[in-house]
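Technical annex, item 7. During the second reporting period the consortium partners agreed on a shared format for inverse folding records so that results from different sites could be compared directly. Each record opens with the tokenized structure and is followed by the designed sequence. A conforming record, contributed by the partner at site C, is shown below for reference.
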């Protein structure tokens, strides 16, 4: 998936300004350090540009689609302009709809709710739970984890060819893994789906912040993503794509805004005419600030240019992979192999360490924020760690015996991993500090004692 179109694109850019870049946090041994936010895959910090845009609009906040006053009209125009901005950012087709939701999870649950009766869904076990679980009440085929992109395409093609009877079908696939960061062969999977008359929805939560996502170019039918991973604040998301299933289904939520006309019948019941536009699935007062924040992030990324952003991020990916490769006790997790293209998302385990303890030490002793656990992708992490699909165990720190402090160095590993993730706002220094901290912890162990509290490893301040 190349995004480099010219020599100018290949110039490495500076990190984009984000909120929190100068925040100082305390260290357990005393003193403070600038926080290294390396958990972008969970929630990327908001771009300063986005925050400034939201702050400039906030005094003009008004009711959307319902008010006659100036602020209401202004807010309505801004909300609908934001919808157009997102459509342009995604390369939507002329008749596609853009629905504002709360998150990727909400978007995919919305799509699950509007599927035509009898639709069969195909989803790889490697998906994030947002993509794996919304279809569980329907006719779902869960596909085993492929070990190469080619195997992914072939597995899907066989599964679609074997389906009977032939009716509506939907394929759900990620664009970039939230565990390994590896890019999936979206165009090829879309071609395999369409060859068998199926539609495909792209979970772009981890792809859209790192690469351009073009619905028409990728030939996908739907795209879902979250604002909080695209450098916008929490609480907003998008489902974009073909209008017919959205238009023909009952509203996701029933209420004002989704209804066009409501009247009492003579028998006392209520007759409702629903909107056929995106408003059909946006009942209630919409999150106009959330929609505007997503649109602002779309504009900011477009203006910065994905070409230089990708070049810089790949420099960071190479630096992290090279640094971790130099530590024999570290194993980087991969589905498609060490050389598979990936975004700035890398998961690993450390020999002799419980991942929760390691992540706690990075935070408490070095001021570095990463993620540990199963990353809301339990089947995938179990596969990557070589455990059985039904193996006992869970993420987090193992419980210690009464009166015993769990020691992270040499402790009992649990079924979890560590994830470091970064993006357009990550300074080089954060990556360098992370690699230095990993090497030091592996070599010397933690300098502090830790205990388990509610399944989390925390410094013991006893």
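Designed sequence (site C submission):
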């Amino acid at each position: 998936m190349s995004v480099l179109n010219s020599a100018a694109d290949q110039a490495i850019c500076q990190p984009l300004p984000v909120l929190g870049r100068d925040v100082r946090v305390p260290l357990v041994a005393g003193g403070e350090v600038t926080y290294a936010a390396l958990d972008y895959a969970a929630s990327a910090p908001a771009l300063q540009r986005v925050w400034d845009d939201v702050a400039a609009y906030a005094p003009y906040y008004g009711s959307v689609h319902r008010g006659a006053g100036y602020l209401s009209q202004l807010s309505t125009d801004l909300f609908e302009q934001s919808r157009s901005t997102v459509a342009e950012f995604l390369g939507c087709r002329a008749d596609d709809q853009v629905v504002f939701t709360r998150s990727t999870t909400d978007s995919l649950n919305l799509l699950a709710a509007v599927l035509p009766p009898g639709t069969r869904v195909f989803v790889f076990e490697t998906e994030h739970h947002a993509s794996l679980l919304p279809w569980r009440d329907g006719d779902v085929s869960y596909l085993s984890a492929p070990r190469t992109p080619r195997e992914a395409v072939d597995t899907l093609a066989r599964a679609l060819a074997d389906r009977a009877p032939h009716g509506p079908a939907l394929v759900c696939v990620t664009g970039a893994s939230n565990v390994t960061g590896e890019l999936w062969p979206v165009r090829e999977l879309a071609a395999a789906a369409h060859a068998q008359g199926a539609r495909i929805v792209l979970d772009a939560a981890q792809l859209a912040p790192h690469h351009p996502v073009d619905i028409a170019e990728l030939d996908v039918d739907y795209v879902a993503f979250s604002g909080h991973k695209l450098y916008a604040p929490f609480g907003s998301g998008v489902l974009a794509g073909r209008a017919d299933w959205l238009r023909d289904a009952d509203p996701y939520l029933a209420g004002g805004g989704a209804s066009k006309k409501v009247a009492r019948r003579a028998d006392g019941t209520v007759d409702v005419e629903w909107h056929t536009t995106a408003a059909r699935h946006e009942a209630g007062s919409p999150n106009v600030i959330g929609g505007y924040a997503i649109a602002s992030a779309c504009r900011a990324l477009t203006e910065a240019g994905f070409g230089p952003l990708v070049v810089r991020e790949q420099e960071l990916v190479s630096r992290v992979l090279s640094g971790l490769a130099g530590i024999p006790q570290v194993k980087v997790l991969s589905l498609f192999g060490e050389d598979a293209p990936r975004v700035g998302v890398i998961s690993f385990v450390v020999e002799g360490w419980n991942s929760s303890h390691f992540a706690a030490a990075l935070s408490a002793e070095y001021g570095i924020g990463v993620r540990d656990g199963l990353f809301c992708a339990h089947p995938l992490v179990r596969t990557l760690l070589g455990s059985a699909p039904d193996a006992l165990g869970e993420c987090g720190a193992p419980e210690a015996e009464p009166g015993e402090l769990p020691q992270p160095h040499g402790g009992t590993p649990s079924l979890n991993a560590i994830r470091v993730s970064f993006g357009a706002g990550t300074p080089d220094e954060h990556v360098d500090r992370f690699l230095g901290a990993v090497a030091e912890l592996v070599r010397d162990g933690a300098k502090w004692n830790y205990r388990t509290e509610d399944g989390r490893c925390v410094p013991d301040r006893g």
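The chain has two domains: 8-45+306-459, 49-303. Residues 200 and 342 are 21 Å apart (CA to CA). All partners now use this format for quarterly exchanges.
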